[in-house]
Amino acid sequence: MLSRVAERIYWMSRYLERVENTARLMGVYTDLLLDMPGGVNIGWYNLVTLNNAESWFDARYKVREERNVTKFLLSDPDYYGSMVHSLKLVRENIRTSRDVIPEESWEYVNELSLYVNDNLQLGIKRGTRHEFIAEVIKSCQRLHGLFISTMSEGQPKSFLRLGRNIERADMTTRILDAGASVVLENEGNLLPSVEQIVWANVLHSVSAYLPYTKSQRKSVKGPRVARYLLEDRNFPRAVGYCLEALETTGSKLPRGDQLTASVRVLRAAHYQGIREDDAAIDEGFRDYINDLQMRIGELHTVVTDTWFDV
To answer: What does pTM read for this prediction?
Structure first.
């Protein structure tokens, strides 16, 4: 398989996952605005910080408010992480890879692109945002389902899996960080029931509420949710599941030894500063999440050096 084709499929998968996860990340804060009592601080600029996009945002907007943040994350044509920009790159990578991926994907991605570009105001306005987010997530999942159910096992599908799981692991850490930031910004001012709302919304944002309750059979608490989304090996959006999938996929590819070794090291590193029976998380957890994001980024570097820069 040509390295440039593998790279296009890898990035197509990453950007498609990024489109869906941007919608999910915005959904966390939108739901919190509806569920939280008055007086609880919901800092929308945190979403810019979580995406390491402060310089991009501050160059375009003077006010760090909800509307500007949602507009930036959805429609900024130049910011590499915006939904419009990511979707443009999904479309381009599908267009140039149509000989190795299902032909229906070109139709599906065009439908999604048209919907997003024609309905951006639905996503920017709070009252219609849920409708927009739900449609984007559904369309992304339709594309994912097409790839999973119709592509034969082989190198194209392997690179699709690499891209999806690296991006998914990264974004799950960012969604956890989003919940942690709300709790820590309001430290001492949240009743236990209100903090439970925060973490329940974190679970809902990654479609993990039902799997969590079936697996844990315990009440929703920050430390338990963090452990579950970081370490569970059965839920597809948990970091532990994604890392195991990366190791398995790497072992099936030529020259995959370095990737599998790097993943094993990362899987062996657990955050020791939090236990499931702890009352709450602390700033040390956010430091760990930031370090974990950088180490997931290093896995991308291994993939690039091994298969694309050759």
So the answer is: 0.91
pLDDT tens column, 199-247: 898 998 899 999 999 988 888 888 889 989 999 999 999 999 999 999 9
- Segments making up each domain of the chain, as ranges: 3-308
Dihedral-angle region of residue 2 (phi above 0 means left; psi in -120 to 50 means alpha; beta otherwise): beta
The one-letter amino acid code at 193 reads S
The answer to whether the beta carbons of residues 162 and 246 sit under 8 Å apart is yes
With both helix axes pointing from N to C terminus, report the angle between 192-205 and 155-185 in degrees, rounded to the nearest 10. 160
Find, among 155, 165, 147, 175, the residue nearest to 246 by Cα.
165
Cβ(240)–Cβ(231) under 8 Å? yes
Q: How far is CA 136 from the centre of its chain?
A: 14
Q: Answer whether 123's CB lies under 8 Å from 132's CB.
A: yes
Closest by CA position to 18, among listed 117, 106, 84, 115:
84
CA 310 to CA 295: how far, in whole Å? 23
Residue 192, burial from CB neighbour count under 10 angstroms (0-12, 13-18, 19+): exposed
Q: What is the pLDDT of residues 279-310, one digit of tens each?
A: 567 778 888 898 999 999 999 999 999 999 86
